[in-house]
Amino acid sequence: MPVEIRGFEYAGLYQLLERSAEEFPNALALVGGSRRISYAKFSEEVDHLSAFLHFLGVRPGDNVCLYLPNSIEFLASYFAIWRLGATAVPVNYMWKREELGYVVKDSGSAVILTDSQRFVMVEGLRSENRRIRHVVDVESVAKKEGIYPIPDPALVKEHQCAVIIYTSGTTGRPKGAMLSHHNILSNIASCSLAISFSRKDRVPCLLPLFHSFGLTVCALTPVAVGARIVFVNPAQGVKAIVKGLIKERATILVGIPPLFSIMADAKLPKLPRFLIRWILPIRVAISGSSALDPGIIERFQNKYGIPLLEGYGLTEASPVVSLNPISAPRSGSVGLPIKDVEVKIVDEHGQECPAGRVGEILVKGPNVMLGYYRRPLETRETIRNGWLRTGDLGYKDRDGYIYIVGRKKEMIIVRGLNVYPREVEAVLNKLPGVKESAVVGVKHRTKGEVPYAFVVLKKGWDLSPREIQAYLKSKLADYKVPQRIILLDELPKNTLRKVQKDRLLAMLKEGLD
Fold first, then answer.
1. CATH number of 81's domain
2. What does the pLDDT read at residue 170?
3. Which of 410, 14, 371 is nearest to 175 (CA)?
4. Range of weakest confidence among 25-29, 261-265, 342-346, 493-497
5. pLDDT above 60 (res 385)
6. What residues contact residue 462 under an 8 Å CB cut-off, 6+ apart?
7. Which SS3 state, helix, strand or coil, does residue 470 take?
8. What is the CATH number of the domain that holds 483?
9. In degrees rounded to 5, what are phi and psi of residue 230?
10. What 8-state DSSP symbol labels residue 154?
């Protein structure tokens, strides 16, 4: 069945732009750098780009790789590909040649869209992969407007694959999660209800568009309601980000924990709360991607008077699964399942757990992916009877609120007793002087495994591993206390600022231990 959003039914993602361009032609759609363009103008740019791609031979069902940083051209590329009935394969623009080459080959992409800065490197892949027919600098395509005839939009089936998003690959080579038009549209519909998106909203796009979180929540949901998207470069630093939010009168802020941590600790002029709210009219802030410390929520809300809601999701679920309701959020929880999404907690035998008992989180709904691209075995292992096995551990309270305790593969078993890294990290992060931490399990000759903790201290603080262990012993059972505390200047992270625990374990193997 087509998905209904704002009273209109959609079968394909391109229709979102088509509808908003018809309804709000003169409304400002996108702000990026010096460019400010309306929905009508953006739709025209998409039409011309699709005409050029059609000229190059892109047809329904083809996979087209996107290797771009956040920009108006990146979002236009998505819609142009969907207009032709093709599938977008977004790639992290910070990946190097070998990483990009793997995804291009695995996805079978014959066309790669990039920018002038990356064009030469990408063009070099053609000598290694003969299936690559064209490498396109999308910035130069605008000069070709009007040269090629604009084809009619393709008729898209709702369960047709729209995007193949490759997972981070921390446990091996990345896998491509296939998300259909129906998957993403259903998630947009649920998100727009959960956050009450409207055309009056102005949404800064801080998250990368090659990731499902940024694509669905920061880009496609605003387009669906005719809201304004403002591209903000997070690399400019928090001061520049806040200036951008103030200048563009942002109303919804979607980010990741490090952003809210920095904003919570930022020094502000001493102004009355009502004046801060007038200067920064954000009505709600949403955090995802990784765990958000409850202390950050409290400091952020006290400073800005803006509700900060934590949610939960994963690429394979398009991606949003749950969100704290703005009317009744619960600290430490990732909230309640959004509309049309079911969540259950199961034990090792697949039996549903009662409230309060930890188990694996399973997700069911129209947002669950089609499967992994060309990986039927992994797909069958991950989706069983319509339930997506997330690999995350958590529990529900009696009211159905979900709490995450860690990854199934990261759980540490000390002499048969379960230790959840997130629990230990939460205690560590409350210690004055600790900026952030990460706990991993290390094999032990007699105990099976023991926890190790990597800790980053705040600037100007001097805590010894012994002092940190003594603090933990006063807060946790002995078997949960890390056997070793390792102080680092920073934790290794990916582009969404998630800690890469596989790299921490590799550091131990390489001689840190």
1. 3.40.50.12780
2. 43
3. 371
4. 493-497
5. yes
6. 433
7. helix
8. 3.30.300.30
9. -120, 115
10. P
